[in-house]
Specification:
- This protein has a single domain (32-195), classed as de novo design (two linked rop proteins) (Up-down Bundle), CATH 1.20.1440.
- It is built from eight helices and no strands.
- The chain has helices spanning 2-26, 29-65, 72-87, 98-122, 126-129, 132-167, 171-177, 188-195.
- The radius of gyration is 25 Å and the shape is elongated.
């Protein structure tokens, strides 16, 4: 009798596990895991490219400082914007905190604007335009800005996929059960400013 009871218990447990697994799969549980990992990977690439840009700024500023009478206000804004952007701890958890995410986005937008202004002003200095080191840094910055745009677009798409799953029925029930909240995304008002790479025109006289 004991053997039969044990077999029944094991069979019942196996059935419960199987039904639970099937239910979780049908309700999007596995999709949440996949898309959550996808958004984390996309976000990591965004951070990598932002860090690459931040690492370029000191060299750009140092090169420009060698130019006599260069606009000090423009340089100061770049330095301050970089300091603000890098002061925000960009952890993976940031993408689950809308307020912190928005502050991070604004800081990066300010740095983009300050760098764009610096490059535009530098066109007024012939010696900078003739400085090969400065021109090489400009090319590196342009390439980094382009990579930022690509990385941001991938992140935007991954978050859209995740949020649609979190808000759609019946997967929204799974989201509520396991506390899968919609993730913040880059806002429209700052998209044009941040995603537009600085203009580099080597033909300008």
């Amino acid at each position: 009798m004991t053997v039969v009871s044990n077999l029944r218990s094991r069979l019942s447990a196996a059935v419960v596990i199987g039904v639970t697994a099937a239910s979780l799969t049908g309700c999007g549980y596995n999709d949440f895991q996949r898309l959550d990992e996808q958004t984390k990977a996309s976000w990591s690439e965004v951070l990598n490219q932002y860090q690459r840009r931040a690492d370029l700024v000191p060299n750009i500023v140092a090169t420009v400082k060698g130019e006599a009478n260069f606009e000090q206000e423009t340089l100061t804004k770049v330095v301050e914007a970089r300091a603000k952007a890098t002061s925000i701890q960009a952890t993976p958890e940031l993408i689950n905190n809308p307020e912190a995410f928005n502050k991070f986005q604004q800081a990066q937008g300010e740095l983009s604007g300050a760098l764009s202004r610096l490059l535009m002003v530098s066109e007024n200095y012939p010696s900078l335009k003739a400085n090969q080191g400065f021109q090489d840094l400009r090319v590196q910055l342009e390439g980094t800005e382009n990579r930022i745009t690509v990385a941001r677009n991938r992140y935007i798409k991954s978050v859209q996929d995740y949020n649609v799953l979190a808000r759609s029925f019946p997967t929204n029930l799974t989201a509520m059960m396991f506390s899968y909240q919609p993730k913040p995304n880059f806002t429209v008002q700052n998209e044009a400013q941040i995603s537009a790479p600085p203009v580099v025109d080597f033909n300008k006289k």
